[in-house]
Amino acid sequence: MSAHDELDPDAPEQMRVRREKRDRLLADGRQPYPVSVPRTHDLDEVRAKWGHLQTGEETQDVVGVAGRVVFIRNTGKLCFATLQQGLTQEHSGVRLQVMLSLAEVGEEALTSWKAEVDLGDFVFVEGRVIWSRRGELSVMASRWEMASKALRPMPTMHKELSPEMRVRQRYADLAVREAARDMVRTRAKITRSIRETLHRGGFVEIETPILQLIHGGATARPFNTHLNAFDTHMTLRIALELFLKRAAVGGVERVYEMGRIFRNEGIDSTHSAEFTMLEVYEAWGDQRSIAALIQQIIVDAADAVGSRQLDTPKGEVNLDGEWTWLSVYPGLSAELGEEVTPETSVETLRAVAARHQLQVDPGWDAQKLVVELFGELVEPQLIQPTFVCDYPPAAQPLARPHRSDPNLIEAWDLIIGGMERGTGFSELVDPVIQRERLVAQSLKAAAGDVEAMQLDEDFLAALEFGAPPMGGLGLGIDRLVMLLTGVGIRETILFPLLKPGG
């Protein structure tokens, strides 16, 4: 039995019967999949225009409607069906009853309906708009047509799909579960809100390459591929940063992109191998101005879909509250009850990790250990919006050195609900220091670090051309949707990457 047939153990037999009905339609000279049907109204339009009718009231207004059959009840001389409309910007799964009576459609059409229509089929019905005696707005059919014959049965409407089946067969999930359709619209509202916020701020949206010769802009393991036309190795992008900065060098001073990026790493309840990232760069800005921007983006998105008071697994979040700033070294020191500074030795930090039963890589230096310890011990406790700042330089090779402490960089991670939601920098635009950072990264890559960035000479040439001071941010769209809806990452991504064979 295939995974598809888990929806219904009788699916193979039902498919045989449905296939026979399809073949019978063709043999009778009728199309099971016509190019079009003469639809005149959406189901929601019928509800909006004739929803004022009283029980038992009939009109002479004739409409042509179509939809998926999600309920059917056939009796002797009167048949009932419920049609469901697909998702629109404003409506989700609007339903409307249609009625077929012997007196209105005739014996041949009624017999054909009973013999040929199954749950899941798309049908077209033309007829008068009435309000049934049982109090249901309906179309009393004068004729009907098959619009698309479904060969696979629908999931049982009253039986919940398993979480695994929801994501493996999202088409079935969308057809039967309103929450799935609502998530599609909610995510669309969030991305539209983000673009509207940035548009008001004068930012320009651009598109940058997904296939790249050199992977950079983040420390992450890339997906590798080969471009036959050039006979050259390429990667899928792991970040949007380096090409957006090239645009800023060229004079696109407020620039952003919202697009898919790809990291060949672990997949779990908060991580996906491909996900959607927003990156924004603002000339003449810095980490503080860009922090104000990400706060506005998130608050606006929350307003677009619901409330600024959010429930998370770690507790309630109030987006209207103070968005605090917390420096890495003081924050870690407070948690440990002992002072940790940029001068704290590797041995001391390894001992701290051992006391807290945290596994560490023997090759990690002191800066890496500080970042990992903070992430494990402090970050999960940061429930209200917090900009974790003043990182050691190794944490973000593309961030500017701190203006008052050379042992730190001007970078932050935004933590909400105990999880990182975004990151921001005062961007490094000094090409000399940037070359030093990227050379150090390339040496790590040569030594076997699969996450280290490569040396990108073209990007360095762009910086040498002259880049204005700028602030930049990255915001994970999937994690923002998770925050605003309270669901896991596989529910926020419409078609998530799944392990084969499930």
From TrEMBL:
Region (Disordered): 1-23
Bias-annotated ranges (Basic and acidic residues): 13-23
Origin: domain of life: Bacteria
Keywords, sorted A to Z: Aminoacyl-tRNA synthetase, ATP-binding, Cytoplasm, Ligase, Magnesium, Metal-binding, Nucleotide-binding, Protein biosynthesis
GO MF annotation terms: lysine-tRNA ligase activity
The keyword ATP-binding is assigned to this record: yes
Lineage start: Bacteria, Bacillati, Actinomycetota, Actinomycetes, Propionibacteriales
EC number: 6.1.1.6
SUPFAM superfamilies: Class II aaRS and biotin synthetases, Nucleic acid-binding proteins
Catalyses which reaction(s): tRNA(Lys) + L-lysine + ATP = L-lysyl-tRNA(Lys) + AMP + diphosphate
Positions annotated to bind Mg(2+) 1: D413, E420
Membrane-spanning residues: none
The protein's assembly and partners: Homodimer.
InterPro entries, per database record: Aa-tRNA-synt_II (IPR004364), aa-tRNA-synth_II (IPR006195), aa-tRNA-synth_II/BPL/LPL (IPR045864), Lys-tRNA-ligase_II (IPR002313), Lys-tRNA-ligase_II_N (IPR044136), Lys-tRNA-synth_II_C (IPR018149), NA-bd_OB-fold (IPR012340), NA-bd_OB_tRNA (IPR004365)
Cofactor binding mode and count: Binds 3 Mg(2+) ions per subunit.
Protein name: Lysine--tRNA ligase
Source organism (scientific name): Microlunatus panaciterrae
